[in-house]
Specification:
This protein is of the alpha/beta class. It has two domains: about 5-180, Rossmann fold; about 190-275, N-(1-d-carboxylethyl)-l-norvaline Dehydrogenase, domain 2, CATH 1.10.1040. The protein contains eleven helices and eight strands. The protein has helices spanning about 15-25, 35-55, 60-70, 95-105, 125, 160-175, 190-205, 210-220, 230-235, 235-250, 260-265, and strands at about 5-10, 30, 70-75, 85-90, 115, 135-140, 150-155, 175-180. An eight-stranded mixed sheet has the order 3-2-1-4-5-6-7-8, sandwiched between helices. Strand 5, helix 5 and strand 6 (about 135-140) form a beta-alpha-beta unit. Helix 1 packs across helix 2, helix 7 crosses helix 9 (about 230-235) and helix 7 (about 190-205) packs across helix 10. The chain starts with a strand and ends in a 17-residue tail after the last helix. Bound molecules: 3-hydroxybutanoyl-coenzyme A. 3-hydroxybutanoyl-coenzyme A binds near residues 144, 146, 147, 190 and 243.
Length: about 280
Amino acid sequence: MKVRKVGVVGCGLMGSGITQVCAQSGYRVVVSETNDEFLNKGLASIRSTLTEDVARGKLSPQGKDSILVRIKGTTNTRDFSDCDLIIEAASENMDFKKKIFVELDRICREDTILATNTSSLSVIDMAMVTTKPDKVLGLHFFNPVRVMSLVEVVRTIVTSDETVEIGKTFSESLGKSVVIVKDTPGFIVNSLLIPFLLNAICMLEADIASKEDIDTAINLGLNHPMGPLMLSDLMGLDTLLLVADAQYEQSKDPKYWAPPLLRKMVTAGWLGRKTGKGFYEYAL
Ligand code: 3HC
């Protein structure tokens, strides 16, 4: 099956990035949100990124228009009925995601591939609420989507080889490199990254070094583009906590135990870049 039309469920940080990258790669895309306010916000962020690209001479005005014309925003799930591949990028809540998969399974064609962009939740739990679990897989993108060149293709024990191949070919057509991984807590990247970020927060909490020095050490000592506390702010501290808790819940491995400082910051609404305050302060 050749993918021509893509659906994206959710137009937040990840959903809007995935939508933009798909449209830029020539796909027609339907993207949904739960209400007009969220949808308009997500579509506005895509328009503004493309407008910046035009201002910087990286994209022609006609190029921008041809990308935008390929994107259709909706609040009606029925608009996904003729999509070949649908990527769920809704919030990290299993009950919510299962409801989305039930609905997509009901309205889509027999051969439609359903993917989740989950960071850490069990893909097979979503697959098994559908009638075609062999056509369900994970396509895990990284933030910022248009810059990060990896997609983790996640296969469950029931995902068919054909579905994996379609997911791989599709991700590569977006200019991404692909790794294939089994449906395990955190897949490859988050199972290594989350303990690293949590350890950095524990180190700050224990007053072993300042936040700037922890970040500088990793930035210069390991050549990472940003230190772990700055990266946590970029991911969103609420997302980091959700991912850590989900990985802990599935594995009971203490390496995923979230330190109290992270929980307190999330409770205080200090969620990182998106709220203007996390470990650092940001202009909104
Ligand atoms: N959103 C979108 N685009 C952004 C961005 C953002 N927040 N920040 C930077 N960019 C773009 C810029 O527009 C620029 O694009 P261009 O190449 O088309 O001009 C490009 O990124 C480079 O930006 P800058 O030169 O301004 O900045 P840097 O060179 O410092 O790069 C960075 C910024 C790309 C964010 C870099 O610091 C980086 O790679 N950081 C690590 C990011 C990372 O590890 N992401 C993974 C997070 S984990 C995850 O997503 C998993 C999930 O499950 C939680």
